[in-house]
Amino acid sequence: MTERRTLAWHETLELHELVAFQANGLVKLKRTEREVSDARLKQLYRFSIHSLEQNLRELLPFFPEAPGFREDETEERADSSFYSGGLLSMAKTSVRNYAGAITETATPQLRTVFVKHLNAAIKWHQMVFEYMEEHGHYPAHNLSELLKNDFRNARKAIAMK
Fold it and tell me: What keywords are assigned to this protein (predicted)?
């Protein structure tokens, strides 16, 4: 049995997607949790925060095994990067959700509306991606930079109080 030295490219990209999504969500939960007054809902927020922190802690050790990864302690990215990343995540999720919904639709009129919304979500995703790319927030063609940003953002999200 041979020892694995690096992650495969396809699993590295899945790792990127999961870490980026969860780190962004964790920051949003931590920022919002302070405003929640309902005790039960606050408990759900704390559970969610703990769960995402644990997921990220378990995923981060795989980064050194990713092709092209190099850890770098550079300056934190601006809030516009965080906020645009949240928009990108929402747009991507909308595309996936509408695509899935279309496959379950038996009513032609509803399918037409779903297709219209899917096309709008695709356009939305394109607009946000282009904004992020133009501002250097999403180095999609540079895996090393992409993974470095994910790693830094996840650690920042975990450390955030």
Answer: Capsid protein, Sporulation, Virion
The alpha helices in the chain, defined as continuous H runs, are 9-33, 39-59, 79-103, 108-134, 143-159
Angle at the Cα of 144 from the Cα atoms of 138 and 149, rounded to 5 degrees:
50
All structural domains of the chain with their residue ranges? 1-76+141-161, 78-136
CA pair distance 144, 142, nearest whole angstrom: 6
Cβ-based neighbours of 137, under 8 Å, separated by 6 or more: 77, 80, 81, 84, 85, 131
Q: Which amino acid is at 30?
A: K
| Spans of the chain, pLDDT less than 70 | 1-4, 73-78
Q: What's residue 76's pLDDT?
A: 55
Say what the pLDDT of residue 109 is.
98
Residue 74 phi, psi dihedral angles, 5° rounding: -90, 175
Start-to-end CA distance of the chain, whole Å, equals 43
Distance of alpha carbon 98 from alpha carbon 82, whole angstroms: 24
